[in-house]
Amino acid sequence: MENTSVNGKKAHEPLFHLVKRDSIKFWQSWLIRIGAVVAALIIVAIIASLMGYDPLSFYKTMWEGSFGSKRKIWKFLQSGAVLLGLAVALAPAFRMRFWNTGAEGQALIGGLAAAAVMQFATGVPSAVQIIFVIGAGVLAGAIWGFLPAVCKANWGTNETLFTLMMNYIAMQLTSFFIYSWDKSGHGNLGIINRKTKLGWLPSLGGNEYILAIIVVLLVTIGIHIYLVYLKHGYELAVVGESENTARYVGINVKKVIIRTMILSGALCGLVGVLVVSGIDHTITKDSIGGQGFTAIMVSWMAKFNPFYMIFCALLIIFLERGGSEVSTVLGLNDSFSEIVSGIIILFIIGSEFFINYRIMFNKHRREVEG
Amino acid sequence: MSSTPAIELKGITKTFGSVIANDNVDLTVNHGEILAILGENGSGKTTLMNMISGIYFPDKGTIKVDGKEAVIASPSDAFNYKIGMIHQHFKLVDIFTATENIILGLNDGKYNLKKSRQKIVDICEQFGFELEPDRKIYEMSVSEKQTVEIVKVLYRGAEILILDEPTAVLTPQEIDKLFTVLKKMRESGKAIIIITHKLNEVMAISDRVSVLCKGKYIGTVKTSQTNEKQLTEMMVGHKIELNIQRDEVKDAVDRLVVKNVNCQDMEGLPVLTDVSFTARAGEILGIAGIAGSGQKELLEAIAGLQRVTGEITYIDPESGKLENLRDKTPTQIQDLGVRLSFVPEDRLGMGLVGNMNITDNMMLRSYNKGHSIAVDRKAPKNLAEEIIEKLEVVTPGTNTPVRRLSGGNVQKVLVGREIAAAPTVFMAAYPVRGLDINSSFTIYNLLNDQKKKGVAVIFVGEDLDVLLALCDRILVLSSGKVSGIVDARTAKKEEIGLLMTKSSHQTDKEEA
């Protein structure tokens, strides 16, 4: 049989096709991720040198943003803890496929409740007051998680929009209360109980950074156990994967949705307490500083695994702090450091594609048997 | 048959990751011929046809159309080569008429409904289709929709037609009609490829049969020179007994009494109307009907997943106590001590969680036992290992997500779990759909074992031959009503076919 000429039609033939991988070895997937970061760093270096900066000193400055001094390292870990805490708080909701975009508001309202108790519940022993501070913050966060969950469970409202809107309510409430509490009229509370330190979370061993870090690590371990080893965690995973299956085996879907969101909101509230009464000792409507939104990305990047979130949260904080260091030391504008973070994160997220798919180039030469 | 080849495949290979869907397949179809492609699920039939119709592109091999090498990289390429495929799942716009659907997406410059309509009528006359061009799709039965799909490809001038499992959704009478039409198309010189795994249909309609097994091309035989037994051996790769055993029913007692059950869908339309029957212990009760006649709702109502009116009463085998199951949740039914197992139609969407591993899927039924707040994975893991061994589930291990398993293995996991609960009532909806012959027989045997153990088995099936061979009695549903309950040992296929369509569509011509 003769192979007829098909030159005219070869242009039709697709150049490559994508094949979904069945499975990938653990080390292979990390090799791809590390490769993505290296590629991102190279591209950033090229851009930096095109703009007339020495890439090496650029990266050195970036590194120093997080590790330049002892204090910077502690700050780095503390900020990482706040971000990690919020990401971990989202994990139960996200595993249930409940897209809670309201960590920012849940944490802020928790912080607001904590600030209120710090300011006004002054007649009790300080240990009792701290318990009230924590309790109020956790409760407020839980309510902020409960409301969208009830509406979703009963009337099928869209949880993404609902929780997102709750953020703005929390922010406006915070503004409102700051103005009504602040007698100076500046809309700024200043450090609450500066002299008495009433309602302040204790600094362990004289280290003001370590408490938040320890609390968040404990929460991370706790949530891991909750998700993997407890019946609650199993139920919410079934609800997330398939509500029909959950109904079929007799899981009360509404109950699970509400319960899980109360937990998620309460943990966000706890992080709010850590920020307001453990770190800042004051509250503004930007106390959470958008970390509630960044936490969504951290949670996703880590595939809702609390332990992976540790790395992801620290990476993001490293990029943030490095970026601002670069812009102050080298006098670059803020946008450039954001571009740098953007490029690196884009490459990391993009690398997931190559972990899930393989590119196969089509062989154009056809073998014809004689 | 001495006609010219319409399409020739040579050395076609297609891989998906590490899975070889088609391995060096050769195939020829002539003009004026019906070629059946026979193979079990997962043998690569549909993949092969998708390459002819431009949905996939082969990794290796050549396709020739009318003797000339062809590159088919998209469905529009296939269309240019006059190849038309009728998919298993119809792709029609519900609120459009047949005519509108047929000319939809056809860009030949002018939009003239009247002319198009006439052309459609001509095609229908030529081949003997029964089709009302002005009827809307949502008013049509499944077989009418299929007709629209076939006319659609003919309208576009297809000379090579591929039909993917065209009989799966049809009643016996509708299948006969389809076959008449296919024969007319053959006479007019069209090349027809029909994908199927039903042997009797292959024997009835095809001129030649090509057999695929696990992606490999086994061979092509003339239908007139073969028989069902030989084809099965080619298809499965070894000899197999094709008879389903059926034991006599011994002292059956009533186990589940369903009386005047009514059910409505979300829009308030009736899905079940006055359904009454009794399921007996030690008996297999078959439920036949066209897809969507209320089978799903009926089983779900019994399992506590549907709101209904009427009575559903369970008779306890030990105490003889009557338990009302209506308006109870699955958990409440379980708490009553009613051991009701249910293999739903939607295996990965309802019976199992696709992304969870086998152990965690075993846990679905049992995780809530005991007062501990922690889950116990030990017992489910043992159960998983037991089922894997006993039912010969092919899996890398108990930690594999079930969605990675093949259809037959998924079903074994599900049925195994449901049987492990030692049920007194066992319900299964389409338990062998998509399964190969070996797995299907495993399932039939498991159902028979349950029957022997004195379980009341309810089996919703679509293959009437299987229903007639396996069940003791068959309840026929038609548009949510019970149109008859027949003795499976004496009933005829045509009789059930008529009951299936009774009072729903215009009655078919009397047969037999």
How would you briefly describe this protein structure?
With 370 residues, chain A is mainly α. Chain A contains 13 helices and two strands.
What does this protein structure show overall?
The complex is a heterodimer of chains A (370) and B (512). In chain A, 70% of the residues lie in helices and 3% in strands. With 370 residues, chain A is mainly α. Chain A has 2 domains: 1-6 and 15-53 and 332-370, no CATH class; 76-331, ABC transporter involved in vitamin B12 uptake, BtuC. Chain A has a two-stranded antiparallel sheet with strand order 1-2. In chain A, helix 3 runs antiparallel to helix 10 (253-280) and helix 3 crosses helix 11. The longest helix of chain A has 30 residues, at 126-155. The N and C termini of chain A lie close together (7 Å). The model of chain A is unreliable at 1-11 and 365-370 (pLDDT under 50). Chain B has 512 residues and is of the alpha/beta class. Chain B folds into 3 domains: 5-236, P-loop containing nucleotide triphosphate hydrolases (Rossmann fold, 3-Layer(aba) Sandwich), CATH 3.40.50.300; 253-339 and 423-512, P-loop containing nucleotide triphosphate hydrolases (Rossmann fold), CATH 3.40.50; 352-421, no CATH class. Chain B has 17 helices and 20 strands. A 6-stranded mixed beta sheet of chain B has the order 6-7-8-3-9-10, sandwiched between helices. A 6-stranded mixed beta sheet of chain B has the order 16-17-18-13-19-20, sandwiched between helices. In chain B, strands 2-1-4-5 form a 4-stranded antiparallel beta sheet, covered by helices on one side. In chain B, strand 17, helix 15 (437-452) and strand 18 form a beta-alpha-beta unit. In chain B, helix 12 packs parallel to helix 14. The radius of gyration of chain B is 25 Å and the shape is globular. Chain B starts with a strand and ends in an 11-residue tail after the last helix. The A-B interface holds A 3-4, 6, 9-10, 12-14, 17, 19-22, 229-235, 237-238, 241-242, 244-245, 247-250, 252, 358, 362-363, 366-369 and B 11, 15-19, 57, 59-60, 62, 68-71, 73, 77, 303-305, 329-332, 334, 342, 344, 346, 348-356, 360, 363-365, 367-368, 372-375, 404.
